[in-house]
Amino acid sequence: MRPDNQNFFQRVYDIAVLIPYGRVTSYGAIAKYLGAARSARMVGWAMNASTGIERVPAHRVVNRKGILTGKHHFQGTDLMQQLLENEGIKVESNQIIDFEKHFWDPSKEL
Q: Distance (Å, rounded) from C-alpha 110 to C-alpha 90?
């Protein structure tokens, strides 16, 4: 990994830890907040690489439609969904119900 990627990943983690309990955000919202609006995929890579970093709530980061696209990176088939449901977020068919209600936009809230 190039040092600039490590720096970007750390910046992603610094935002991810601020996502409130019971709320979610999107890869794109984090990228936009970091001034890299076209880097949503890199935010996804950062979330994938966060496995084992206990303080990073990667389960709270989903795609722009509220779909749990990163769920296959969690141990167990439904761990991401279980973690979200433990926070009061309903999920059906890998998609967050009332996504807009749970959405946390770092550009507006930080």
A: 25
